[in-house]
C-alpha cells in the first residue's frame, strides 16, 4: 500500500520531508500502545506477582491496538485510491472511480466529493 506518486509530488516541494505518513504514524501508535500494555503487565508481575486483572487488561489493550491498526487499513486504502484518482485526473484521465467505501463515513463522503469534482 505504498504510494510512490505522493512521494514524487512532495519531493519537488520538500514540504513533507521527514514527516511520517499516516500509515506509519498509525503503526507507531498502535505498537506503542501494545508495548505499554505489555510493560505494565511485566512491571506489576515483577513487583507484586501475577495479577489476573492486570493481565486481562494488558491483553485487552493489546488486542484493541491490533484491531485499531487492522481496521484503519481500509480507510488508508481508500485514501490511497483517492490520491491515485486525483493524480490521474491531473493527467487528464477522468475514467477511474473510487469503490468499496461501504461503512467508511467521512472517508466515503470525501471519495464521493472527489468523484463529483473529477468527472
In short:
The chain is mainly alpha-helical and 119 residues long. It has helices spanning 4-13, 22-48, 52-90, 106-118.
Q: What share of the residues lie within helices?
A: over 70%
Proportion of strand residues: under 5%
- Provide the succession of SSEs: HHHH
Rg:
20 Å
Would you write up a description of this structure?
This protein is mainly α. The protein has one domain. Helix content is 75%, strand content 0%. It contains four helices and no strands. The chain has helices at residues 4-13, 22-48, 52-90, 106-118. Helix 2 packs antiparallel against helix 3 (52-90) and helix 3 runs parallel beside helix 4. The longest helix is centred in the middle third of the chain and has 39 residues, at 52-90. The chain is elongated, with a radius of gyration of 20 Å. The chain starts with a helix and ends with a helix.
Structural descriptors:
mainly alpha, 119 residues, 0% strand, disordered N terminus
Structural topology:
Blueprint: H1 4-13, H2 22-48, H3 52-90, H4 106-118
Helix pairs in contact: 2-3, 3-4
Amino acid at each position: 500500500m505504498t504510494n510512490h506518486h505522493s512521494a514524487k509530488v512532495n519531493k519537488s516541494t520538500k514540504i513533507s520531508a521527514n514527516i511520517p505518513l499516516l500509515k506509519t504514524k498509525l503503526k507507531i501508535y498502535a505498537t506503542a500502545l501494545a508495548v505499554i500494555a505489555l510493560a505494565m503487565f511485566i512491571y506489576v508481575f515483577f513487583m507484586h506477582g501475577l495479577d489476573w486483572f492486570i493481565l486481562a487488561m494488558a491483553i485487552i489493550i493489546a488486542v484493541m491496538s491490533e484491531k485499531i491498526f487492522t481496521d484503519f487499513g481500509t480507510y488508508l486504502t481508500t485514501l490511497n485510491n483517492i490520491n491515485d484518482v486525483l493524480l490521474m485526473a491531473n493527467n487528464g484521465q477522468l475514467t477511474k472511480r473510487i469503490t468499496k467505501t461501504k461503512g467508511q463515513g467521512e472517508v466515503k463522503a470525501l471519495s464521493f466529493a472527489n468523484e463529483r469534482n473529477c468527472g
